[in-house]
Design a protein that fits this description.
By secondary structure, this protein is mainly alpha-helical. It contains 21 helices and no strands. The two termini are 33 Å apart. It binds inosine diphosphate ribose and magnesium ion (2 copies). Belongs to the ADP-ribosylglycohydrolase family.
């Protein structure tokens, strides 16, 4: 029987896993890997680490906006004793962006971050709501930074859902934008609380699907966005006009998870995974791929010559091509929450900028969460 990592190790694994996914995936976000399933290219890149880390003047792999924003989320939770305080988080996002704007932020989110820095802003959710003509962004920026929220969820799924949504709404008010953050947070939370000997990938996915279906995507008219309401009004008109026409389902994450469950049985090639679950900067076309990378890589993958499931997860996620830093970062957070810090090679940690800060933040969050548990 394999011993499950301790909870502290899982906290560390989660935040450091997110950083290494971001740093190792980032160079490929620009160049691509040459199509989904190009395992050799990613493997060759990682194999050079041994040489580079010992060589003179070896440079670190830089983190991008994914890590910059996740650090803000962690810092805000630490400063507020594990509670999500939207105003405080908004200020940290804005300050971080102003201090280091060149971290590869999404093209449109920049407008929101600048407005969040306005001292007179009374509603911190307002700038995000005006994105994309009032529809809000469905980019994966809410999901890519949400892992620390999941660490503070304790054993309350509702709290994870609520806080993931609030943290995302500061920049992503589109239903698919914030629900992507919810699914990613639920995946991290579930990985964190699944013991190694009880892991069953199909059950893990089914459980996520049930939670999304029952607690998240069932709410077709929640407080969401003006656009949600507009869309629904349009939909009603459309439905009454063309009664027999098939209306598209708006439970996109449930659809992705249904495909994911099927893929765990059929094991399709990487091209199919990328085309069905997605590899783009949209949340609904990337979060499912991150979850799948973690679950698929619990077992060996043909053509990917690496023994450790944690390392395999990162390499597989990058090999899906497209938004490589973000998919690998999200997959790394989930995998790290399950496999623990011991599963992340020390040379990766040394080489990836920001691993040390992630480690410290994980420890602070762990202390806050365990202390509040013993006090109750
Ligand atoms: O979501 P966001 O923070 O970007 C995150 C991504 C990650 O891959 C990072 O690594 C970084 O590279 O960027 O930033 P947004 O600007 O809100 O969304 C990202 C992109 O998604 C936008 O620039 C658009 O191209 C696209 N997008 C949309 N396009 C059309 N209509 C998001 N929402 C919409 C939309 O409603
Ligand atoms: Mg990035
Ligand atoms: Mg990205």
């Amino acid at each position: 029987m394999t011993l499950s990592p301790t909870l502290r190790s899982r906290f560390r694994g989660c935040l450091v896993g997110a950083v290494v996914g971001d740093c190792i995936g980032a160079p490929f976000e620009v160049t691509g890997v040459g199509g989904p399933g190009s395992y050799d290219i990613v493997q060759d890149f990682v194999n050079k680490f041994d040489v580079e880390i010992d060589g003179p003047g070896s440079e670190k792999l830089e983190y991008t906006d994914d890590t910059a924003m996740a650090r803000c989320v962690a810092e805000s939770l630490i400063a507020n004793n594990g509670q999500l305080e939207a105003k405080d988080l908004a200020k940290r996002f804005a300050d971080e962006y102003m201090a280091h704007p060149r971290r590869g932020y999404g093209y449109n989110v920049i407008t929101v971050l600048k407005r969040l820095g306005d001292r007179d802003l009374s509603d911190v959710f307002a700038p995000a709501r005006s994105q994309f003509d009032g529809g809000g962004s469905y980019g994966n920026g809410g999901a890519m930074r949400v892992a620390p929220v999941a660490l503070c969820g304790e054993d309350e799924v509702e709290r994870v859902i609520q806080n993931a949504k609030s943290s995302a709404l500061l920049t992503h008010s589109n239903r698919n934008g914030y629900n992507g953050a919810v699914l990613q947070a639920l995946a991290v939370h579930q990985a964190l609380h699944t013991s190694t000997d009880k892991m069953n990938s199909e059950k893990f996915a089914e459980n996520l699907l049930n939670t999304m279906r029952e607690k998240v995507e069932c709410q077709t008219s929640d407080e969401g966005t003006a656009n949600d309401n507009k869309k629904e009004a349009k939909l009603t008109t459309l439905m009454s006009q063309v009664k027999k026409r098939k209306v598209e389902r708006d439970d996109v994450y449930c659809q992705r998870l249904e495909s994911l469950c099927h893929f765990l049985k059929s094991d399709p090639p990487a091209e199919e995974v990328a085309s069905v679950l997605g590899n783009s900067i949209s949340a609904h076309n990337s979060v499912g791929s991150a979850v799948y990378s973690f679950l698929r890589c619990l077992n060996p993958v043909e053509g990917l010559h690496v023994q450790s499931p944690m390392e395999r997860t990162i390499l597989y996620a990058i090999s899906l091509d497209g938004d490589t830093d973000t998919i690998a970062s999200m997959a790394g957070a989930i995998a790290g929450a399950f496999h623990g810090i011991e599963s992340i090679p020390e040379q990766w940690q040394k080489l990836c900028e920001g691993s040390d800060t992630a480690l410290k933040q994980a420890d602070r969050l762990y202390e806050i969460i365990t202390k509040s548990k013993t006090e109750r």
